[in-house]
Target: histidine kinase
Amino acid sequence: MRQAPATTARVTATAPSPGLADVWAHPLLRCILQGQSVRQRLDQRHPWVLDTAVVLAVALLSLPDLLSSSRHGPFGDPTEHSHWPVPVRVAFTAALVVPLWWRRRTPAVTYGVISAVLLAQWSLGVWQQTGMAALVALYSLALHGSLRVLAWGAALTAAELVLAVGLLAPVKHPLLGLFFLMGTTTAAIAIGLTLRIRRLYLAALEDRATRLEIEQDQRVRLTTAAERTRITREMHDIIGHNLSVMVSVADGAAALATNRGETTADALRILADTGRQAMSELRRVLGVLREDQDDERLLGPQPRVHDLDPLLTRVRAAGLPVTYRTTGDLDALGSGVQLTVYRIVQEALTNSLKHAGPGATADVTVNRDSATVHVKVTDSGTAAAGARSGDAGHGLVGIRERAAMYGGTVSVGSPAAGHGWVVDVVLHVPAGDHQP
Model:
């Protein structure tokens, strides 16, 4: 019931997470988060920019192997490149670097091409810095590719590394080399899987938030429909009663005019027939609402303002002390307005009984002036606003719908003191809406 509607005057702001606030307060972490946000927006708009940057970065790391004819390979083994022409080394580098441009669109194919080129390169006894392209390919496969293909790729990479270090391109320190290569391979796969799990987690949170928002909106719509149906039933009783009185008075006046020989008898009969036709149409249109609740036989009359005294007596007996003050001639209000005032007070006090807590008190004030009726219900409960604002129930929706019938305004929230709860409703009552 305490869900804030569109007409709520007070809005409770949710405090930011302390942990996130601490992160943003740190200059370095704030720069990292801001940089990540900028990169994500740029990647969404122009995905080719990041792919090209990765290709260029790996290509630049291969320049020492292309420019120098004598380089020391990894793990202390001297590897001479002089007997391999520069075009061959450039071809190997291009075959390792260029496939990275498609690493996110076709990660399995990219890894397969790079793995095959590396195997051919190691078969010739050549080690190049461009071999790190395999790490990028494995990372992309773990992040974007199939997990089954990733498992086969990890096993194939381990087998290739053992074969390369032990047979194809022996190194001076094989155990150290194998440990380093296996470690970097595992790290690339682990980073890719970590980011993949993070993306799935964030996607699940977004989907859950979307579904909760949809469910909340559906609950509000269903509750609004139920309250409108309930209000319609009650107004059906009031309007039907008034029409019945009008038809009876018109019939009596027509009979009296006929006995006296007055010319108004025909007009009164037309008035009575029109009233009966209106009652028939009203039953036909709104009768389906009665069929939905055949088990609810409302044999008593609809409550009015004077029925607030028994209501407050029951609330006091339930343990909530209530004070009640009125000003103005409330008994002269129309039946619909009196029913609306009664329901507003009833729903507000019901909510206070649920949420105010022990030791709380309530105050009900109903003021009537020439054009408005002001209903205010307050309690001194100590429960926080967040604890009171659960799912939107029938209470607040019903108050809002009833107030809307009379062009009213609804204000719900905590008072300025910060404790308790206030339901403040102003109804605009037409001058002619009064008891006959």
Q: What stands out?
A: The first helix runs from residue 18 to 25. The two ends are 35 Å apart (CA to CA). The beta strands are 70-72, 78-80, 322-327, 362-368, 372-379, 409-413, 421-428.
